[in-house]
Specification:
The protein has one helix and ten strands; from the N terminus they run H-E-E-E-E-E-E-E-E-E-E. The strands form three sheets. Strands 1, 3, 6, 7, 9 and 10 form a six-stranded mixed beta sheet that branches. It has a two-stranded antiparallel ribbon with strand order 2-5. Helices cover about 15% and strands about 35% of the residues.
């Protein structure tokens, strides 16, 4: 019986060690930062017309002082928030109207990269099937903060403004 008891205690201590180690490994999670940039163009409440070109200007805050800051530009049916935002830094499929693309903002005078490119100064407004003419939709930007500090998951800045969609 002594051998069985010592064997059982050894097995229990091994399982306890594994359980303690697994509990100490941080899981990847999404962190929505209270800090975010500003959409300067298009203007809040302005009309955007399907098929037309709209000016785009975004002032990044770069709170982590990264050399390059990734951002994505979207059209949403509702204001940007974390209810449909995934841990991968994107809006869930079916929760957005259109994704303009992924861009990389160079900071501190660093050269622009080609893939992904820096944000363009204009964007072409898509035709949005199922969106009524003169509907309020939201122009949104997601910033990814990658280096604050390097031992935690990426953080995201979400910002959006209402615009009026015209089908042209």
């Amino acid at each position: 019986m002594q051998l069985r008891t010592s064997t059982l205690l050894s097995i229990c201590s091994v399982f306890a060690a594994f359980a303690g180690h697994a509990a100490s490994v941080p899981s990847r999670r999404q962190i929505i930062s209270g800090s975010h940039g500003t959409i300067n163009s298009p203007l809040n409440g302005s009309a955007i017309v399907s098929g037309s070109t709209v000016e785009f200007a975004f002032a990044s805050v770069n709170p982590c002082e990264s050399g390059y800051e990734p951002l994505t530009v979207w059209l949403l049916p509702t204001p940007a928030d974390n209810t449909t935002f995934t841990s991968a830094g994107a809006f869930a499929e079916g929760s957005y109207l259109y994704k303009f693309g992924e861009y990389l903002v160079p900071n501190f005078g660093l050269p622009a990269m080609s893939s992904p490119p820096p944000p363009p100064s204009t964007l072409v407004v898509p035709t949005l099937d199922g969106v009524a003419d003169a509907s309020s939709i939201y122009f949104a930007v997601v910033e990814t903060y990658e280096d604050c500090p390097p031992d935690i998951p990426d953080e995201y800045g979400l910002t959006s403004i209402p615009v009026v969609y015209l089908s042209g």
